[in-house]
Specification:
The complex is a heterodimer of chains A (216) and B (411).
Chain A: H1 2-19, H2 33-45, E1 53-57, H3 68-75, E2 83-84, H4 90-97, H5 107-110, H6 114-122, E3 125-127, E4 133-135, H7 154-175, H8 179-209
Antiparallel strand pairs in A: 1-2, 3-4
Helix pairs in contact in A: 2-7, 6-7
Chain B: H1 2-12, H2 15-24, E1 27-29, H3 38-57, H4 67-76, H5 81-108, H6 117-139, H7 144-156, H8 164-172, H9 179-210, E2 225-227, H10 228-253, H11 283-291, H12 295-307, H13 312-315, H14 328-349, H15 354-372, H16 374-388, H17 392-401
Antiparallel strand pairs in B: 1-2
Helix pairs in contact in B: 3-5, 3-9, 4-5, 5-6, 5-10, 6-7, 6-9, 11-12, 11-14, 11-15, 14-15
Classes of the chains: A mainly alpha (216), B mainly alpha (411).
Amino acid sequence: MKLRALSYLMLLLAAPATWADNALKDVVIDQSPTALRRGAATVTGVCMACHSLKYLHYRDLLKLGFNPEDVAGMSMGNKLEDPLLAMTPPDVSEQTYGRVPPDLSLLAKAREDGPRYIYSLLTGFYQDKSGETNNHLYPGIRMPDILGWSGADASQRAALATQANEVTAFLAWAADPRADERRSLGYYVIAYLVLLTGLLYVLKRRVWARLGQGSN
Amino acid sequence: MAQRLIDWIDQRFPLTSFIKRELTDYPTPRNLSYWWNFGFLAGFLLMLQIVSGVFLAMHYKPDVTLAFDSVQHIMRDVNYGWLIRYLHSTGASAFFAVIFIHMARTLYYGSYRAPRELMWWSGQVLLILLMASAFMGYLLPWGQMSFWGAQVITSLFGATPLIGDEIVLWLRGDFVVGDATLNRFFALHYLVPFFIVAMVLIHLVALHHVKSSNPSGIDLADKDNIPFHPYFTAKDFFGLGVFLIIFCGFVFFAPEFFIEPANNEPANPLLTPPHIVPEWYFLPFYAILRAIPDTLGGVAAMSLSILIFAAMPFLDRSRIPGGARFRPFYRAMFYIFVVDVLVLAYIGSQPPGGLIFKIDVAATVIYFAVFLTLPFHSRWEERWLHARGLPPALRNLLDSASEPQPRREAR
C-alpha cells in the first residue's frame, strides 16, 4: 500500500509536464492533401519507429490518395487491414525510455489546442548548457529530438518547420478522419433545417392568424 | 376502412377521445411565450438520447480493456457511428441546457406555486434522475476524465458518517473505480432513462390535470384558452427547428466542444490529471461542494443546493399572483440568482485558489440566501405592493380571472 502511494506521488510530480500547454506557437496547419500525404510518410517512416497509431489501419491511408503500392511501401510488410503499430516492440521501448511511447492516434484531440501543441512540441527542442536536449513545452521529455530541430540552423529550420507542420496535419487527420465527411454533411443538414424552420415559421404565422388578433 | 378500424379500437380503448382531450382539443393558454417551448424540447431530447443510446449500446463494450477502443470503433468504423455518438454526447449537454432554462422559466413565472407543486416536485425527481444518468454515462467512454470524475464523485459518499467507506465500496463494487463499476454504471445508465420516461408521464398527467401556467401567472378564463393543436403544435415545431439548427451546428462543426481533451486519453488509474473538472452542467454544484472545506459539510451543501428547489412552494409566501412580472423584488432576486449560478459555474471550472475560494464562498452564501430569505421578503413584498396599490395591469388580470368560471382548482 505504501509503495502504491509512493508511485502515485511520483507520477503526480511527473504529471504537470504532460499537461503543460503554455507557450504554444502560433501556426496555421496546412491541411492540403499533399501536406497530409507527406506527413503520413514522415509519421510512418520516422515517428512509428517508437509510436503506434493503433486506431488507424493501413487501408485508412488509401483515403489520403495513396495508391496501394505506396501504402505497401510504408507498411513494411504489414497487410492493409493491420493497425499501425510501432516498429519497436512496446517492451523494448519501455526499457529504453522508461515508459511506452504514447499512441498518437488521438493526440491531436487529447491536448488543449492539440494541433498547435504537437507543432510546438516538435519545434520546441533546444540544447541546454550541458549539451543535453530538452523541450520548452515539455521539460524533461524523454523523446529524442527526432527532427534534429535543436541542432539545425535557420535555413534548415525552415524545412523542418514545414515537416513538423505536415506531421501535425496528418496527426490531426488521424485523430478525426471523419471530419471532412462530417462537415460536408453538416452544410446540407443546416441548409435543410434553415429551410424547414423557415417553412415552420410561415406555418405557425398562418395557423395563429386564424385567432384574429394574432397576438404572440 | 380506416374509420371502421378506428371505431373498432374506440369500442375497446379510448383512442379518439384520448387524443381529442389530451392533444387536439387540450385547452392551452393563448398567451404562452416561447419560454414554454422548453418542456417539449426536453421531451424531444429524451427521445433522441434513448434512440441514439440504444444504437451506441449495440457497438459499445462495458469492459475496462475494451470500452475506450469500442468508442473509437464507433467513431471510425461503424456506419455513421460518429454521428450517433456526437448526437448523444452533444445531446447530453443540450438536455441540461434545456432543463435549466425550463427550470428558470418555472422560477421566473412562479409556475411552481399552487396547484402545480406536484409538477414541480416530479420535475425535481426528473432533475436528479437526469443528473444520475449523465454522471454514469460519462464514465462509459473510459477516458481520463471519465475515470477520475467517477473516482472523485464516488469518493464523496465516503463522507457519510460511520458507514462511508462501506457505501463507497458498495457503489464501486471494488476499492477503486474499475471493471465492476463500469459494468454497473452501464447497466444503470441503460435503466435510469426508463424511470425518467415513467416520471415524465407522471409529470404530464399532472400537467394535463392542472393545465399550463402562463406568463400572467393567473389562471385565465376559459375564453383565453385555445386548443393545443394546431396552435401549439405549430409553435413548438418551429421552436424545435430553431433548436435543431443550433444543436446541429455543434454536432457537425464543433462536436468536441463539450468533450474535455483529457477524455480522449484512455483512463489511467496511475496518473491523476492535475485538474479534474466535471461536465459543465455540474459546475455550479461542484463549486458549492468546494466552498466548504469540510468534506461532509461540502457534500451536504451540494445535495442541499439541488434539493432546495423542492422547497420553493413553501418558501414563497407571497399571495400576489403571477411570477416575477408583478413582483419587482422577486424579479431582482431571480436575476441575482441566475448571475450567481453563472459565477459559481465559472468558479467550479477554475483550479482552487485563494481568491477563487473567497468568491466561491460568497457566491455559495448568496445562493442559499436567495432561497432562505424568500419567506421573509416575499411577505414583505406583498404588503408593500398592496400598500402602494396594485398595478392596473395586474388589477385587470385579477378582475378578468374572478369572472365566473366553470373550472378553478385550488386558490
